[in-house]
Amino acid sequence: MSKRRIGLVRRLATSDGGFTLIEVLVAMGILLTVFLSAGGLLISTMVNSQRARQIQTAGELANQAIERLRALPYATIVAGSIQPVTTDPAVTTYNGLYYYKYQPLAWNTTTTASNQTPLDTWPWPQVKANGTTFTVKTFVTCHHSAFTGGANSYEPGCKDTSLGPTDQVLYTATVIVTWRPNGTSASATKQLVTQTEIFSPNGCQSTLTHPIAAPCEPFFYASADTGPGSITITSASSTDPAIADIPGFTAATLSLPRLTASLQSEQTANTAANGSAPLTTWTVSGTDSSLGGTRVAAQASNDAGSTTSPSDTESVSQSSITQVVASSDGSASLTLTQGSVSGTLRAAAQSLTGASCADTTGQQLVTTLPCSMGQLGAGGASAVLKLPSVGQANLLVLNPPSTTTPLAVYTGRFGATLGSSPDVHCASFLTGSAGCVGSEAVRTPGDVYLGGLPANVAANAPAGWGGYLISVTGYSDAAWSERGQTGAAPKAGISSGTLRYWNGSGYTSVNLAGAAAGQQLTSSLVVSSNSANRQVSLTATITTGGATATTVPSSGDQSNASCTSNTPCQGTASVTSFVLDLKYVITSTPDGSVRASLDIKVDLGQLLASATYQAA
To answer: Closest Cα to residue 146, out of 168, 165, 175?
Structure first.
C-alpha cells in the first residue's frame, strides 16, 4: 500500500464526525408523531371495545328479561306489574290509565303476597358489570291502543277481537336497558330496546301443564280411582251403649286399600300414582286413635322448571295390623284386623327406559308418552266381638281375593292404536291427530261374610244357617274411559259377583252383575239362648250397585270443532258398589238390658275412570 493511501485511512479513523442536531430533532419529531398516532388509535380501540362490551352486556340483560317474561305463566303476564311506575318519563296517564308509548300498561294495585308477580316494578333493578351500572326496565302493554276498560280498571282489557271469534289477548313485552358510559354526563345515557309479542288464546287449561306464554296445545286429562272403601262400626242407638262391657267405645273404621292415578298433558306433562294401605281408627271416651294407613306417591313431570323427576317408581308395603279394644278385665273385646298389602306405583312424563307402565291386566304399554299406573294386593279384614256369656262372634270377615293384583289403575296418553286389553286405545286413529288419553280402574276386593252369630248362640240357629246373614263372593268391577280426536265410548260394569242373604228359611242368591242398580233388599234373624240368657237380633239392608257411562257432548262427537275450551270432550265411567248395612243387637233376656248395639256398614265406594280432551 502506498504511503499516501495509508495516511488517508488513518485520518478517517480518527475523525470526530456524526449526526447533526437538526438531524436528531427531525428524527425525534417523526418518532413522536408515530407514537401519538399509535396512542390515539389505542385509546380509540379501547373506548370502542368498552362500548361494544356495554352494548353486548345490555343485549344479554335484555334477552334475559325477555326470556324470563316468556317463561312466566300467561296469567302472570295478564296480571301485570304490582304497581304503575308513575315516575318514569316514558309513562303517561290518561283517564286513570297508565300508558307506555301510547299503549296501555297492564298493571294492578294488589300488594298481597299471593297476588304479587315477578314482573319488574319501581324501583327498576340495576346490574353492575365491568364498572358500568345498567338499569333494566320492563313494560307489558296491550298490543295496540284499541282496548276496553274503565277509568278505575286495574288492568286494561287488551282484547283484540280481530284475531279470532273469541276474545284473543295479545300483549307487547318491552325491555329497555339503559346505562351511562363512564365519565359522561346524564345527557349521554345510552339505551337498548327489545320487544316480543306474548299471545295465548283462551282455552289453555292449567299453568301446571302450560307453564309458558305460548299458543295452546291439545289438552289431555285422565284419572282413575278404585274407590275410598271402608267398613264402619258405630252405635246403632242414640240411647244404648255400643258395647256395654267396653265403656266409652263409640266407633271404629277399617279403611280399605285404595289406588288413584292421574295424568295432565299439554305443553308439559304431569303424572301421578298414589297408593293408600289399610287404616284402622277407633274412638274410646272421645279420643281417636289410628294404626296403619301408609301412603305412597309416585310423581313425574317433564317441565324443566319442576323439581319432580321425569319418571318415578315407588313401592307400597304394609304389614298386617291388629287392634284390640277391650274392657278393663279383658272379658269383653272388639278385635279389628287388616291383612298385609304390597304393590307398585309408577309415573312417567316422557319416554321410559326399561319397564313401562302396565295396564290393569298387566300388559306393558310402551307408548313413549306420559302414563301412570298402580297395582296393589289386598290382605282382607275382620271384626270379631267377644262378650261374657255369649262368647265370640265374627261380625265381619273379608277374605283376601285370589287374584294377585285385586286393585289396579292406569292412565296413559296414546298416539296410535295399541293393545286390546281391556279395549283398543285410540279407536279409528287418525294419522296426524293428537291421539287420545285413556284411564282404567278395576277391583276385586275379596269375599265378604257379614253377621256371624256368637259361639254360645249359634247352636240355636235355624236349620240351613250357613254361619252368616249375608255374603258377597266373587265380586269384581271395572271402569274404562277414553277421549281424544278419536276414541271409543266409556264403559263400566260389574263383571261378576254373587250376593246371598238369609230369607228366613234359607238363602236367596242374586247375580250382582245382572241386578238392577239401587235395589233395596232386607234380611233379618233373631236367635235366643236360654243357657246364655242372651238374644241376638240381626237386621240388614242391602243396596245393589250399578254402573254409569256418560260423554260430553252426548252425541259422542270428538272432532276438534266439538272439543273446545267451552265444551271439552269428556268421558266418565263409574261403578257404585253394593252397600251392606247391618244392625247387630245383643240383649240380656232376664232384664232386657242392651249388651251391644252396633251398626256395621260395608261400602266399597265408587270406582271411577274419566278422560278429557280439548283441541289446541
So the answer is: 168
